[in-house]
Design brief:
With 81 residues, the protein is mainly α. It has a domain at 10-43. It has one helix at residues 12-42. The longest helix has 31 residues, at 12-42. It is rod-shaped and about 110 Å long. It starts with 11 loop residues before the first helix and ends in a 39-residue tail after the last helix.
Length: 81
Amino acid sequence: MAEPWNSTLPCPRCAVLQRRIAELEARVAQLERLLEQATRTAKRQAAPFSQGPPKPDPGSPGRKPGPDYGPSAFRSAPPPR
């Protein structure tokens, strides 16, 4: 005669599935921590002079005054004939 079903004794397959669920939940938690860390790192701003030390003699800021500003926009007049 078959033994009656007892809810206190888990079946072997249930134990395997419970272990698998616990492993997957641990993996999800690990991946969520990695994602949060990567997101936090992406929001961090760069430090001043992050591309090397500052220049020893930097030029004055802004436009150059008068004719020194940029290349001339027009060609010179052709020579007279």
